[in-house]
Amino acid sequence: MSSDVDIIGARTLRDLRSESLDAFGPRSSRPWLAIDLEEIDPTDDDLALWLGALPCPVVGLGREQRRADFDQACDAIVERPETLVSIAATIEASPIAAMTFVQLLRLIEGLGPDQALTAESLAYGVLQAGPEFDGWLRQAKPVAGAREPGPAVMIDRRAGELHLTLNRPGNRNALSLEMRDALVEALDIARLDEEIGTVTLRGAGRCFSVGGDLSEFGLAPDPATAHWVRSVRSPARAMTAVGHRLTVQVQGACIGAGVELPAFAAEVIAAPDAFFQLPELKMGLLPGSGGCVSLSRRIGRQRTALLGLTGRRITASTALAWGLVDRIDG
Questions:
Q1: 148-328 falls under which CATH superfamily?
Q2: How far is it, in rounded angstroms, from Cα 10 to Cα 40?
Q3: 0.85 cut: is pTM over it?
Q4: In CA terms, which of 18, 158, 317, 329 is 20 to 30 Å from 274?
Q5: Sheet with 58-61: strands ordered across
Q6: What CA–CA distances, in Å, run from 101 to 39, 49, 123, 195, 314?
Q7: Contact 330/272 with Cβ under 8 angstroms?
Q8: One pLDDT digit (tens) per residue for the chain, 330 residues
Q9: CB 192: neighbour CB atoms within 10 A?
Q10: Where are the domains of the chain?
Q11: How far apart are CA 191 and CA 204, in angstroms?
């Protein structure tokens, strides 16, 4: 394990509590804290409150199954010290995004879905205007793929069933503006027609979706306008309205929006080859397609934070064990 990862015990924590808040978070010597849960008094409520208010991620090292009340002060819990290395790399590359991500997850725990989605969009907009996203955008220079024929979302109505298919397999079903608008319109059919009892969503080709179309990142005229668009043309909001009737079938890559949107469904069915990943923090952003809301309600705030802070891929079997998917078929 890297010697740069400093795992803090009880004595150091007591000393740190006398520090001002600007000693933590971006542009400080402590952009995050890794604490040894085995050394901490779980009855220290004041310490838990202090940790939960810090402007930086707090990661606990210890047995996840303890789940003591104190552990809820942590933004994520890891059982192996090696995991801290990947967390350190993400946070050191994007400390502002990491801070905003965990602060948002803390905030929305007690909010309803519409309020939580608004909070997510506002946080996402802040990061869109930030230096970390700007730096990523300057070096990434993503190129748009060739335009594919046919509708971006295929719609098949069969009596009381509505079947939807993401239809840009050549672009790995990246969520472009075209696909976003088509998906919102398709989901609105189910919202407005009470005779539709079930909605099924799948992706054409080898993967469900690799997330947002990177070639369109940074094209919004400004973050405020982008927030307005997300407020009225959001697949996540459309899914919350029909989620109790929605089944999503996923396969292959489910990245970014490709995992965030399915998590709103009443049932997620995964192929054995499906894998799931949240890479947004490495772009200086946070999951902005509803994932902070949908994932945290499916798998909890701490596992959602862990996925974002590590950027790791998890398999279908891990997703099933966590409750991110409901069954594996195939």
A1: 2-enoyl-CoA Hydratase; Chain A, domain 1 (3.90.226.10)
A2: 5
A3: yes
A4: 158
A5: 7-8, 33-36, 58-61, 76-78
A6: 27, 18, 8, 39, 20
A7: yes
A8: 344 688 998 889 889 999 999 999 999 999 999 999 888 877 778 888 899 999 999 999 987 555 456 677 899 999 989 999 999 999 999 999 999 999 999 999 989 999 999 999 999 999 999 999 999 999 987 777 778 899 999 999 999 999 999 999 999 999 999 999 999 999 999 999 989 999 999 999 999 999 999 999 988 889 999 999 999 999 999 999 999 999 999 999 999 999 999 999 999 999 999 999 999 999 999 999 999 999 999 999 999 999 999 999 999 999 999 999 999 998
A9: 10
A10: 7-125, 148-328
A11: 23
Candidate CATH numbers 3.30.1490, 3.40.50, 3.30.70, 1.25.10; the one for domain 7-125: 3.40.50
Instruction: Determine the residue type at 172.
Output: R
Q: Which residues lie below 8 Å from residue 133, measured CB to CB, with a gap of 6+?
A: 97, 127, 218, 283, 284, 285
Task: Give the separation between CA 194 and CA 196, rounded to whole angstroms.
Answer: 5
Distance, CA of 293 to chain centre: 8
| Residue 72, token pair as written in the block | 């809820």
